[in-house]
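Hi Y.,

Following your request, here is the sequence exactly as I used it, all 303 residues.
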Amino acid sequence: MSGVVADLLYEVEHVPSAGEEAMVLGFSIAPGGGFNAMVAAKRAGMMVCYGGSIGSGPFSSIVREGLNAEEIPFLRTQDLKRDQGCCSVLIDRDGERTFVASDGAEGHVAPDDLKQIGFAEFAWTLLSGYALHYAGSRDALCGWLETEPNISNLVFDPSPVVASIPQKALHAALDRAHWISANAREATTLTGLSDPGKAATALAASRPPQGGAVVRNGAEGCMVAIGSALHHIPPYRVRAVDTNGAGDAHVGSFIARISQGDTGVQAAEYANIAAALSTTQKGPATAPSSAVVLEVMERKEAG
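Below is the corresponding structure, written out as tokens. Let me know if you'd prefer a different format.
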């Protein structure tokens, strides 16, 4: 339930101020958004299916081709009224990214759409805050969160638009979430706490047994809170060239590893490395394979 969009990727000298024009060094189009997390989970060894919406049109074709290339099945009928949404991503010389996004088919979900998915068949479900932000999908997903009995191990990624999610929708997700994975800014918005560790502890306090919270803090690594226990997971240092999709890579990798029996701490250690390595390549869906990550982990333990 994490919508896939078409990313319009601009490599720029710097993000322009109002009235300026960006100096573009490179341009490409690729699937992005929830696609990044699904690819990361798949490459970490998890079976993945897409339960969001796919429309019809040029952007939708790019999304479908990306899903097919990664062998990720699509669970619902196609939206024939709308094209897929897109996100203009400006990536500066330091690898930082700035977004301007507009929703399309992925921002529209009706109750009957959700009935096409057999949620009891899936052990883990990822929900993005974008899906609750969009007016065209919010009501159906709120009803789903409040009434669907077969949502197993829901992971909620509040996303950068968390401050714009209506409180009813936000609480519906928080009440059902087994795990919350947020970046430090999002965690502060949710809790009012600027310290990532305190924010993680607050978010974990109301999680069910074996659940918890992950607060991703960029180059500082991440904080993992499980019950009252708090763990700092150090970063894996790399030279980043493109941070677009790194948070998604972390979320997808974390879910995949914890679904395979890792503890929350072990899954976060893997996810830190996978997310870091994803920033060393250009493109949104650049999560490494599990073999690459495990090799790095072995070298770290040996050294």
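The two ends are 40 Å apart (CA to CA).

Thanks again,
Q.
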